[in-house]
Amino acid sequence: MSDLRTLKRRIGQRLIVGFDGTRVPQELLRLDEEWGLGGFILFKRNLQSFEQVLDLTESLWAMGGGVPPFIGVDQEGGLVHRLPKPFTVFPDMAHLGQVASVSLAYEVGAVVGRELTAAGFNLNFAPVLDVNTNPQNPVIGRRAISNQPQQVASLGRAVIRGLHDNSVVACGKHFPGHGDTKQDSHLEMAYSDADMERLKSVELVPFHTAFHKSPVLDLVMTGHVKYPKIDPQHPATLSRAILQDLLRMDLGYKGLTVSDDMEMKAVVDNYTIEGATLLGLEAGLDLFLVCHSIDRQVAVLETLLKEAETGNYPKHLWERSFNRIRDLKARHFRVVRTVDRTHAREVLGNREHQRIARRLKDGK
Questions:
Q1: pLDDT at residue number 1
Q2: For a Cys staple, 139 with which of 66, 184, 287, 299, CB 3.0–4.6 Å?
Q3: From 74, 260, 261, 286, the catalytic residue
Q4: pTM of the predicted model, to two decimals?
Q5: How far is the C-alpha of 170 from the C-alpha of 122, rounded, in Å?
Q6: Is the dihedral of CA 118, 16, 220, 308 positive or negative?
Q7: Which residue of the set 165, 186, 292, 332 is catalytic?
Q8: pLDDT value for 2
Q9: Cα(78)–Cα(363) distance, rounded to whole angstroms?
Q10: Distance between CA 15 and CA 268 in Å, rounded?
C-alpha cells in the first residue's frame, strides 16, 4: 500500500455508486479512472428499455480499474422492481410466505438470476431477510417474505440458492433487521427496542441460516436502525457492537458487508458524510453504498484515503476488507466484454418465466 495509485485503487474498490441518467456521466468516468470504483447500483432512473439497459451494463463492465465491478440492482419484486419490459415482473415477496413452497422460492430466485445475468448484471440487492413483525412498519411490510422467522429463513435461503446457481451474488438485507420499526430509514432514523434475546429468537434467524447453510450468503446489507439495548449511540451500519461483536464474532459471518445508502436521511440528518464514513470503517463495513451525489461519493473516497495515509486504522484490517472484495469477485465474476443480445431476448420475460411469476401471484 505504498504507492498512492495502488492505494487509491484499493480504496475505490470499497465504494458502490449510483448516478442519474441512462449513460455513465463524464464526471463518474473520470472518478472511476482515478479510483477504480468497486461497483454500481442502477435504479429506474437509469433503466429505460431493453437495448439501453444492455448498452449500460456492457459499458459498466469496462469500468472498475481493471477489476470487474459489482453491477447491481434492487430486483425484489412488487413495488421494488427496477427493470423495464420485457423483464419478468414478480409480485411482492410476501406471496412466497403465503405459498410457502421452497421449490417455488428457488425457481423465483433462479428466474431473477437468469434474467439479470443475461442482461449483464452480477449482483441483486435481495432478498429481504427482515421478519415482518410490526404491522405499522412503513418501509418493509410486504417486501418481507413472512412474519415467521423460520419461514423467512427457509424461503429466503431458497431464493439465495436460485440467484447463486445463476451467477448472481445475493445480498441479504437489512441486518440485523428492519421489520420491527415504526420509522422509514429513508426519511428518518429508525429504532427498535429489541434486546439481544429477542434478536436471536426472531430477527437474526434468517441471517444465521443464510450464513451457515450452503451456498452461504456472500453479501449482507446493514440497516440504518438503532438498537439502543445493543448500541445506544449508533445505528447498525455504524455500530462496531453490531457489525463486529454480533455479526462477525457471535454469528460467525465471513462474507462482505455493505451499507444501505449512506445518503438516506437516517444518516445524513445525524452525521456528516465524513463522520459516518469513519464510523462505518471503524464498525467494520467493507463496502460503502452512495446512490446519488458525486460530491458525497468523492467525500467517502477522500475520507478513506486520508485515514489510510495517517496510519490510524490498522493495515491488516485494510487488507482484510480488500481481500474479501477481491476474493468474492474472483469466485463469482467472469469478465464480460459484450452482452449477448440474442440470448437476452430469449431469456427475458420468456413463457416459462411468466408461468412461474403467475404461479407466485396466484398462490399455487
A1: 45
A2: 184
A3: 260
A4: 0.96
A5: 9
A6: positive
A7: 186
A8: 53
A9: 15
A10: 17
Q: Which residue has the cell 463486529?
A: 244
Whole-number Å distance between alpha carbons of 297 and 286: 15
The letter for the amino acid at 56 is L
pLDDT digits (tens, 9 = 90+) for 173-201: 999 999 999 998 999 999 999 999 999 99
Fold of 4-362: TIM Barrel (3.20.20)
222 within 8 A of 175, measured Cβ to Cβ: yes
Classified as helix, coil or strand, 174 is strand
Per the annotation, the verdict on 81 as an active-site residue is no
The region, left, alpha or beta by phi > 0 then psi within -120 to 50, assigned to residue 6 is alpha
pLDDT at residue 256, as a whole number: 98
Q: How far is CA 9 from the centre of its chain?
A: 21
Q: Show the low-confidence residues of the chain (pLDDT under 70).
A: 1-2
How far apart, in whole angstroms, are the C-alpha atoms of residue 70 and residue 159? 19
Spatial distance between the Cα atoms of 120 and 102, rounded to a whole number of angstroms: 27
Sign of CA dihedral 195, 198, 203, 208: positive
Question: Annotated catalytic, 224?
Answer: no
Q: Give the type of residue at 222.
A: T
Handedness of CA 195, 226, 152, 359 (dihedral sign): positive
Average pLDDT over the chain reads 96
CB 91 within 8 A of CB 26: no
Give the E-state strand segments of 20-61 in sequence order: 39-42
